[in-house]
Q: What sequence folds into this?
């Protein structure tokens, strides 16, 4: 890990590139965002975007969802991974929150809801325009952050802490920026030559052909 990298400076071009870029989930309001974030865990954003419109036609808000039964919800999400638990989680969230305006807006309150961990809560806060209280660490960040050298290991919680330790809160959107980099450039087979981070990337510096 190249300790000489000043990550506060080095990460800024990446933050600038992806500043204000919307999350790939195609939501229209915070209610839809919460539902889609829960559904997307261990599934793909693309798949959730495909199934969501019909779901929201029938359950357009938290109030409608709070009155739903598992049998009523199931046909809309039965091809989503882990749909059994997600059905329970969504109904429980709706019954606790009841109305869209009561959706929590802090990380501590969001992670108390079933099916919402730190990553999901951080996504909800970002997309709601709330100040970052943590760093989004999804599967792309787990792959890319250790390659860059800004973090080590494969534990999302530890990676989040490491990034929070080297960057000030105003740069904590780096998680989503790193995720976008992972989706577009730093794929499982990375396109290092076109990556704007290759001058500071530990993986590139180690593996580039001299």
A:
């Amino acid at each position: 890990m190249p300790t000489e990298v000043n990550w506060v400076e080095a990460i800024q071009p990446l933050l600038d590139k992806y500043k204000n870029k919307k999350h790939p989930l195609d939501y229209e309001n915070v209610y839809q965002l919460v539902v889609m974030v829960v559904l997307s865990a261990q599934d793909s954003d693309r798949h959730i975007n495909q199934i969501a419109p019909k779901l929201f036609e029938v359950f357009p808000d938290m109030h409608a969802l709070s009155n739903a039964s598992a049998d009523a919800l199931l046909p809309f999400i039965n091809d989503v991974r882990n749909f059994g638990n997600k059905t329970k989680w969504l109904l429980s969230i709706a019954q606790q929150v009841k109305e869209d305006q009561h959706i929590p807006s802090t990380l501590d309150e969001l992670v108390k809801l079933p099916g919402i961990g730190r990553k999901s809560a951080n996504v909800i806060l970002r997309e709601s325009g709330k100040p970052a209280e943590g760093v989004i660490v999804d599967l792309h960040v787990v792959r890319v952050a250790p390659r860059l050298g800004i973090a080590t290991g494969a534990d999302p919680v530890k990676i989040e802490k490491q990034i929070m330790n080297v960057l000030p809160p105003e740069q904590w959107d780096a998680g989503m920026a790193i995720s976008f980099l992972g989706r577009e450039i730093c794929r499982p087979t990375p396109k290092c030559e076109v990556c704007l981070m290759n001058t500071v990337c530990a993986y590139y510096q180690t593996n580039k052909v001299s």
About this structure: The mean pLDDT is 96. The CA atoms of residues 139 and 179 lie 8 Å apart. The chain has 13 helices and no strands.
